[in-house]
Amino acid sequence: MNMQAMLKQAQKLQKEMMDAQEQINNMEFIGKSSLVTIKANGKKEILDVKIEAEEIDKDDIEMIQDMLIVAINDAFKQVDKETEEKMGKYTKGMPGLF
To answer: Which own/partner contact pairs does 53-56 have at CB distance under 8 Å and 24+ positions apart?
Structure first.
């Protein structure tokens, strides 16, 4: 394969990677923890937080904080999984690239 063909292939691969990353960034992921639901995008930005307020005693603030952490981490794990599924084919042998 000549250099120009390799460069063209690399540019194609780069565009595919950028397209896949953009697709992930625009997706929404829902993290849940009993009374708490979190919506995040693929950039790991929190878009929405819902708390089942009627089910919560005002003395349970610490429990709500823990549920928020669990729900956020759940949503972020989904982002990581989707990123690995879409980007893994481009990053084989290069862990931590995305």
So the answer is: none
**H or E segment to which residue 41 belongs:** strand 36-41
**CA distances (Å), origin 11, targets 3, 7, 33:** 12, 6, 42
Spatial separation of the C-alpha atoms in residues 44 and 49, rounded to whole Å: 14
Q: Please state the pTM of the whole predicted model.
A: 0.63
pLDDT tens per residue, range 69-88: 888 999 999 899 988 888 88
Q: Which domains does the chain have, with CATH numbers?
A: 22-81 (3.30.1310.10)
Q: How many CA atoms lie within 13 A of 79 on its CB side?
A: 26
